[in-house]
Specification:
single chain; alpha+beta; 6-stranded mixed β-sheet; 19 strands; 30% strand
Length: 292
């Protein structure tokens, strides 16, 4: 299965993902070890079924990953888990790459940052907000388990993965063997379950039935990472996740005794994220939104 990622200088890296190699990225380059191939993405003919424009973006404050995915033939695109402070960065990237942003979507109602969906709808007219129906959040499109989010010839299956919150979903691109797990499954960890409808038992069942049931070579991209890692695989997490390799009883005990602090941005983020990040915003963000 091949994937191609846009990189600095208008180049496209082409190679195989999974199996014996993996993709690595710096701020300027993407490459695969042990072999890789550069091509000019503006002139290369390709088909949508075996390629995907892909960018992994990062917010330093909340350690949130935002993902830009696009069909290279139609230029239709989606953004997953945008952050309001970086909405202009995301909108500018969409413009630079000549993409048609179809959906700005969330894996769940976040508590550690304010979503950028509302501001992006103003910055990129015509795009729609999207979230799971079970989240209770407002959006133009509300999806349910088993439905498919389509952009160009690309598809993301919606899988219900509650436990961190009731409305958590994982988006799966089977053609490219990629899954975007939100806070349900992190790299060598998982989302907390001690607030916002959290349930350790539910989370354990969700990960094992909806994520660990995917083929071992599927790449997993989380909503956050606090240790400098960018991607994992189903096989890695089934073997090395220190929480989710335990029995359900052991997992529940671990989660009950994490002793995590109260999330710093929850009192601002939750009310805003219920309405696409447009409610009772901090003064600086409200001014930015009103200026657009």
């Amino acid at each position: 299965m091949s994937i191609r990622a846009l990189i600095g200088g208008g180049l496209l890296v082409s190679g195989r993902v999974g199996g014996g190699g993996s993709w690595w990225a710096t701020s300027s380059y993407c490459y695969r070890s042990p072999s890789f191939q550069f091509r000019n993405w503006k002139t290369m003919s390709t088909t949508a079924r075996d390629t995907l424009i892909f960018r992994q973006l990062f917010d330093r404050q909340s350690c949130t990953y935002t993902y830009l995915l696009a069909d290279p033939v139609t230029s239709d695109a989606v953004l997953i888990d945008p952050v309001i402070q970086l909405a202009e960065r995301d909108a500018n990237l969409v413009k630079d790459l000549g993409l048609n942003l179809k959906y700005v979507m969330n894996t769940h109602v976040h508590a550690d940052h304010i979503t950028g969906t509302g501001l992006l709808k103003k910055l990129v007219p015509g795009c729609q907000s999207l979230i799971s129906k079970d989240s209770g959040g407002m959006a133009d499109v509300k999806v349910e388990p088993g439905e498919t989010v389509t952009f160009g010839e690309q598809e993301l299956e919606v899988r219900k993965t509650p436990g961190h919150t009731n409305g958590c979903v994982t988006y799966v691109n089977h053609a490219q063997k990629l899954a975007f797990t939100g806070d349900a499954l992190l790299i060598r960890g998982c989302g907390r379950t001690d607030f916002q409808e959290g349930s350790s038992e539910t989370l354990y069942d969700s990960v094992h039935s909806q994520i660990f049931s995917l083929p071992d070579d599927y790449l997993l991209y989380p909503a956050h990472d606090y240790n400098g890692q960018t991607v994992t695989t189903v096989a890695e997490e089934k073997n090395f996740n220190p929480r989710l390799t335990k029995s359900k009883e052991e997992f529940i005990d671990i989660m009950d005794n994490l002793g995590l602090p109260y999330p710093e941005q929850i009192d601002e983020a939750l009310p805003a994220n219920k309405v696409c990040g447009l409610y009772n915003l901090p003064e600086d963000l409200a001014e930015k939104l009103n200026a657009e």
